[in-house]
C-alpha cells in the first residue's frame, strides 16, 4: 500500500475523447457485463433456444404444418416456429434487455456515477445499441446454426431472402433497442423493472405469432397485434424462412414487406423520440 | 485568472422541494487548493448543497460557480475537471476493480495510472475481484478510486469513509493529504469530526438548511467555545466541571486545597466534535425558543 500518487504532469490537459470513440469503448465493456449477468444470459440470450426446443419436442408428434390434403409436404414444427423465435430474440435482446438493464443501472447508481463523468449520453447510447447489435446478431446466428444442425431445418438458399433477413433483423433489433431505452423510464425502481417489462414482452409474444400460430388467432387479436412492432418482425421473418405457399395464411394473404418496413420505421421514430425525451442520468427533482 | 479566484463560489444559495426549504440562503467560497468541510446533522442540507455543486440538482435561487462554470450548464469539459465520490453506491458491479477503473480512466483526457490508484486505495490484492464480491468498505474504496482516477482539479467527497475500518480510514487520510499536496481542491462532508479536523483547512456547519458557522478549523465556534474545561471529584464525592482560560492555575489550587491529587482530575480542550455539538445544540435551542436566541448566541 502506498498512499502517494504521482504528481500532475506538467503537460497541458489533452483534449477529451470523441463521443464516438468513447461510445465504441463502451460497447466492449457493455458486452462483457452482459455475459456476466446470469439473469440476462438465461432470460434474454438463451430463451429463444429453450422455447424452440420445447415447441419442437412438444408438437413434433402432431406431424408437419401446412401439409397437402393427402398428408404429404408441409414443414416441421421447428421450421414453422423458427421465424417467431428469431423475432422473439430481437424483442428480448433489444427491448427486454435494455429496459431492465437501464432501469437497473438507474436504480443502483450506475447512471448517476456516469452522469458525473465526461461521458456523453450519446456515447452511452452507442454502447447500449452496440451491445444489443452484437449480442442480438450472435443470438440469431447461433439460433440459425442450432436450427440447421440440431433440428435439421432447411434454411433458404436464395440470396434475396437473406437480404430481407438482414434488413428486417437490423431495423427490428435497433427499433427494439430504442424502445427498450424509452421503456426503461417506466419502472419506478430497478427492482420492479422485471415485473413491469416481462409481462409486456410476454403478452406481445402471445398475440404476435411467436408462441401461437398467428393465422389461428381471432381477427381482433391480430388487429391489436398489428399496432405493435413484434407482429411485423415475426411476419418479416416468416417471409424469409417459410415457403411461399404460406403467404396465403397471412392476414391479407401476402408477406407485405413494405408494410413491415413502414411499421418498424414508425416504431423506430417512437423509440428515438421516447428515448430522447425520457432519458435522464438521474431522476431530477422539479 | 489569478489564484485568488475561488474554485467554488456559492452566493445566497437556496433550494426548496415543494414547501420544504432544504437549503436557505447559504454563501461560501472555496479557494483553489483548499480543503473545505461541510458539517451538519443528517438532513441538514449538506447533500442537497453538494449535489447542486456537482450539477446533479438545480438550485431554486442564488449564484454559483464551480471552476468558473455554472454547474447547471456544466458541459463534458467541465465534468472532466471534477471528481465525485457520491454518498452511497449500490452498484451491482459485475466488473472487476481493475476493469472498472480502466474503463473510467478511459473517459478522462488525462487520467492517473490505474495501478497507482488501486495501490493508493489499498486494493492491490482485490484488483481482479468483481466489485459485488467486495465488502462494503472495500466497495467504498473503489468509489474513492473512481472519484480520483480522472485527476480532478476539484474533488467532491460525500461521506467518503463510511464503512471504513480505522486502518483504512488512516490510509484514506494519507491519500487525501497527497491529493492536497498536489493542489487538488476538496469539498468534504463527513460525520466523523476527527476526519474533518485532520483533513480540512476550513469548515462550514449547516443546520436546518442554514449555515450557522464558517471558519478555519481552529477558529470555529469562536474563542469561548475553545475554553478548556477542568473536571474533578471533590473529597465529598461531588463532581465538578469548570471552564477556565487558566486551567494550570486552577489545577494547582485544587491540588493545594486537596493536599494532594484531586480525584479523577481531567483537563479537556474541546475537540472539534465538542465545539460542533455545542453549536448544533445552541442553534436547536435558539430556533425552538426564539426569545432566547440572543442570550444563547
TrEMBL record, chain A:
GO terms for molecular function: ABC-type transporter activity. Residues 39-285 form the ABC transmembrane type-2 domain. The keyword Transmembrane applies. The chain crosses the membrane at residues 41-60, 80-104, 125-150, 162-186, 193-214, 254-274. GO terms for cellular component: ATP-binding cassette (ABC) transporter complex. PROSITE patterns: ABC_TM2 (PS51012). One of its GO terms (biological process) is response to antibiotic. The keyword Aminoacyl-tRNA synthetase does not apply. It is found in: Cell membrane; Membrane. Belongs to the ABC-2 integral membrane protein family. This is Transport permease protein. It comes from Cryobacterium arcticum.
